[in-house]
Write a structure and sequence with these properties.
Elements lengths: L1 E3 L5 E3 L8 H8 L17 H26 L3 H11 L7
Antiparallel strand pairs: 1-2
Amino acid sequence: MVRRGSGGGWSLARAPRDITLYDAYAAVEEGQIFSRYTHPPSGACEVGRNIGDLLDVEFRSAERALEEQLGRTTIAGLLHQILASGNEPRNH
């Protein structure tokens, strides 16, 4: 997605219209977006025995939705929004 610039720094290896936020995210992150439990639930508990599989389904659905949303936004689109907003101060 990027390549080393001739005078140092970096430049995009593809046109901004061809790079989505999902591309940028996937280039620097790996694995699941939402973390799962750090300690396995108790197998002695009915909820604990079943919650992992149920949450995996919900988390994966949310991850797909986020990936789809990020995939609809390009770097060029963000630049267009920035330039269209002018120099008006914004609260962040």
